[in-house]
Each structure stands twice: as structure tokens, then as C-alpha cells.
Design a protein that fits this description.
The protein is mostly helical. The chain is globular, with a radius of gyration of 10 Å. The protein has one domain: lambda repressor-like DNA-binding domains (434 Repressor (Amino-terminal Domain), Orthogonal Bundle). The protein contains five helices and no strands. Helices cover 68% and strands 0% of the residues.
């Protein structure tokens, strides 16, 4: 499994732990839902800026988000 897939799985896990849909996370983080779906499936190489946005939105540190 490559790093994009592992990151996507970690992101999906944290999102689901909050009980949020992809749409809710997308709206809260101001990231397109279709892009977010691609990240969770390991199809997109997410930028550092978006990693920071998602961590903040999920209420975790970037290191927690990257802990996979």
C-alpha cells in the first residue's frame, strides 16, 4: 500500500470517528467533496496546505493525521 492510500485511509477513519460524511468534512474544510473523495481513495496527492486544513477541521494535529 502506498503513502497516498495509507493517508486516505487514516483521513477516512478520523472523519468517521467524528460521525461526519465526506460532504460535511468538505464543507467544513472548504475543500471540494470530489477532491476529498479522491484523497480518501488514495488517488490524489494532497498538498501540505490541505493536510493542515483537514487536521484543523478534524480537531487533530497534523502529526495525528499523518500517523498511519
Amino acid at each position: 500500500m502506498d503513502v497516498q492510500q495509507r493517508f486516505g485511509e487514516r483521513l477516512a477513519t478520523l472523519r468517521k470517528e467524528k460521525g461526519w460524511s465526506q460532504e460535511k468534512l468538505a464543507l467544513e474544510s472548504e475543500i471540494a467533496r470530489s477532491y476529498l473523495g479522491g484523497v480518501e481513495r488514495g488517488q490524489r496527492n494532497i498538498s501540505l496546505i490541505n493536510i493542515c486544513k483537514l487536521a484543523k477541521t478534524l480537531g487533530v494535529t497534523t502529526s495525528e493525521l499523518m500517523d498511519f
